[in-house]
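We give its fold:
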Amino acid sequence: MRRAALIVFGFALISGIALAQAAASPAAPTRPKAPHGAKVFIISPRNGATVGEDVLVKFGVKHITVAPATDTAPNTGHHHLLIDAQELPPLDAPIPNDAMHKHYGKGQTQDTIHLTPGDHTLQLDFADYAHMQFDPPIVSRKITVHVKP
């Protein structure tokens, strides 16, 4: 009987610790639902293009509205340009803001970026006002550009 009581006590203790940890953990931000048919794409440069070190990249959208990051309206968002990213950023957190993940939170639809000579990949990743990717993610096809010196 005493052994059974210890087992029940141990189970209750472990359960209580797990519940306390779950309650203390911040909830992951909610990802907005992607509008049906929403697409983003790179208008230019074209895949396989040879370009100079300063590259004008033009962004396109379909079935979603480009807006500044201050706009919280449904079905709106802004571009992020992924440069040489092997994979998408984690889906449960805002897109990072670093050299590999450029933010266009003012609603920009183009930018001139500087790349070093060699091959580089570019991909658009569209996100909401909080920089959260949509569900499912709205991303362009990844393109490769060849940068000449």
Notes: The longest strand covers residues 118-127. The radius of gyration is 22 Å. The domain at 39-147 is CATH 2.60.40.10 (Immunoglobulin-like).
